Amino acid sequence: QTQRIGNSMNTGKVTCIKCKHYFVTWDVQLPKGCKAFGFKSLMTPAIIVLRSSGQACMKFEEKKKSSRSN
Q1: Res. 7: pLDDT tops 50
Q2: First-last CA distance in the chain
Q3: Quick one: pLDDT band at residue 11, thresholds 50, 70, 90?
Q4: Is pLDDT above 50 for 67?
Q5: What pLDDT, in 10s, does the model give residues 31-55?
Q6: C-alpha R_g of the chain
Q7: Pairing of strands 39-41, 32-34
Q8: Per-residue DSSP letters for 2-60?
Q9: Is 69 helix (H, G, I), strand (E, B) or coil?
């Protein structure tokens, strides 16, 4: 179930920005995308998946940490 917390949406354990499939597009009308499901949207992809399937995203894979040093 989705809960609104402040200005953000809590979709369970899925945080798209931490997922390797998430990307930001140049499309102003559809700024967020998911490579795993192959779509762009105005809302965070995890919300779209939850609303359309009734389940939290099953394709979430955490991004690997970069070993770059400053």
Answers
A1: no
A2: 40
A3: low
A4: yes
A5: 999 999 999 999 999 999 999 999 9
A6: 13
A7: antiparallel
A8: -EEETTEEE-TT--GGGBTTEEE-S-SSS-EEETTTTEEESS-HHHHHHHHHSS--S--
A9: coil
* CA–CA separation, 7 and 20 (whole Å): 23
Which two three-digit tokens encode residue 8?
Answer: 């953000």
Q: How far apart are CA 37 and CA 1, in angstroms?
A: 21
| Cα separation values, 30 from 21, 34, 67, Å | 16, 11, 31
User: What gap in Å lies between CA 10 and CA 12, rounded to an integer?
Assistant: 6
- Give the residue with greater pLDDT, 68 vs 48: 48
